[in-house]
Specification:
Keywords: Cell membrane, Membrane, Transmembrane, Transmembrane helix. A hairpin with a 2-residue loop joins β7 (176-179) and β8 (182-191). The chain has 13 helices and eleven strands. α2 runs antiparallel to α8 (257-297), α10 (312-349) runs antiparallel to α11 (357-374) and α10 runs antiparallel to α12 (376-383). Strands 3-4-9-6-8-7 form a six-stranded mixed beta barrel. The chain is of the alpha+beta class. The longest helix is centred in the last third of the chain and has 41 residues, at 257-297. 52% of the residues lie in helices and 16% in strands.
């Protein structure tokens, strides 16, 4: 059989029942569309995950400072020196102890037996760079600055949750909180902490007031870096903070962004790829079922062709080509609908759509392959028919 004749016969067989062919193609369309959508959204979502990881985690370093000895390992001024390192955007020194983590803080010094007036909160001494390093926002008021530290002003900044627990909703009249029966003016409330969220329920005091709560020495240094500089700064920070005893400092650095990117991408892709393949298998079963029904309906035609000299391979090739054409058509339509859906979802979520050109080109071929495999059994069954039995 000439290849052109084979193509014409297969196309005629597919178009002989257009409604059935369209419904059969619909299974492949749904499978390919689901595959393209899931892989496209997986790549887009993975890109967002990586972006958020790079934005925060990959630029955050923590240096733990152990206690002990008469001379502090890290001074309060040492954190400022970190800014000289290329790639450091901000650095904050903190001091916190077990004792200062459980202090009774009240919004007034009146004893009211009818209600709870005190809350057990953590008191943390921190340098003025804390909002920038933790990427927090001032909900009300302002954060203390170098002037407050130099003058030893008795001021504090409350975390958003701490202010809510103490019932402080406005700073208009300069409210005060009492810690160890001493009053401290609240000048600000900080919230939206993207790093060190535990500070949202803490009372932040300038380093100059730290000794009032047993917070004399630095216990931790938070460092924010530019993207890509974390690994280098993690090696340089201990030397900059404590040149003579840098080995005693413990640096907590983020994992490699490339490893995290690849891991997140692989996990998301693996999950959605399984879902897409399941949908594609469902479409293949539909093609196989309809092709088999078509073979049974065209037994007389098969018998006549065999009687006129058609070989088994000609019959098999005709049905394989029909099922492949159905799969190819479904793959083209499904790939188009899938790409449109990915772009639409990304636009709604305000994401940057990520579409692989190879996926768009491979989807129609995948549809044709699915159609070919789905039509394999019906085509072999048609080829095995004997002309006499088929005609009878």
């Amino acid at each position: 059989m000439d290849l052109r004749d084979l193509w014409a016969e297969s196309l005629a067989g597919m178009l002989a029942r257009p409604v059935r062919s369209a419904l059969t193609t619909l299974g492949t369309v749904l499978g390919i569309t689901t595959l393209v959508v899931t892989l496209g959204i997986a790549a887009t979502a993975g890109n967002q995950i990586v972006g958020r990881f790079d934005e925060l985690l990959a630029t955050s370093i923590t240096v733990e400072v152990p206690r002990g000895g008469h001379t502090p390992l890290v001074t309060w001024e040492a954190a400022k020196e970190l800014r000289r390192l290329r790639g450091v955007t901000s650095a904050t020194a903190l001091a916190q102890s077990d004792t200062s983590s459980n202090l009774v803080v009240t919004a007034n010094n009146l004893l009211d037996p009818t209600r709870v007036t005190g809350q057990t909160l953590a008191v943390v001494a921190a340098t003025p760079d804390l909002p920038e390093t933790t990427r927090g926002q001032m909900v009300a008021g302002r954060f203390y600055d170098a002037g407050h530290v130099a003058r030893r002003d008795r001021v504090v900044v409350l975390g958003e949750q701490a202010a809510e627990m103490l019932g402080i909703t406005s700073l208009e009249h300069s409210p005060a909180v009492f810690v160890k029966d001493r009053a401290y003016t609240v000048i600000g409330v900080i919230g939206g902490l993207r790093r060190e969220q535990i500070l949202a329920s803490a009372v932040l005091v300038p380093p100059a007031l730290g000794p009032d709560f047993g917070l004399k020495d630095v216990t931790r240094v938070l460092v924010a870096t530019q993207l890509g500089a974390a690994e280098l700064i993690a090696r340089q920070a201990p030397l900059a903070l404590s040149p003579d005893r840098s080995g005693e400092l413990q640096v907590i650095a983020p994992p490699s962004p490339k490893r995290a990117r690849d891991g997140a991408q692989d996990d998301v892709n693996g999950l959605f790829l399984v879902l897409g393949l399941v949908s594609l298998v469902v479409g293949a079963v539909g093609i196989a079922n309809v092709t088999l029904v078509t073979v049974m309906e065209r037994v007389a035609e098969i018998g006549l062709r065999r009687a006129l000299g058609a070989a088994r391979r000609h019959i098999a090739a005709q049905f394989l080509l029909e099922s492949s054409l159905i799969g190819l058509t479904g793959g083209v339509i499904g790939a188009s609908l899938g790409m449109v859906a990915v772009v639409a979802v990304a636009a709604v979520r305000q994401w940057t759509p990520v579409l692989d050109v190879r996926l768009a080109l491979a989807a129609p071929l995948a549809g044709a392959l699915v159609g070919l495999l789905a039509g394999l059994y019906p085509a072999l069954r048609a080829a095995r028919m004997e002309p006499v039995d088929a005609l009878r």
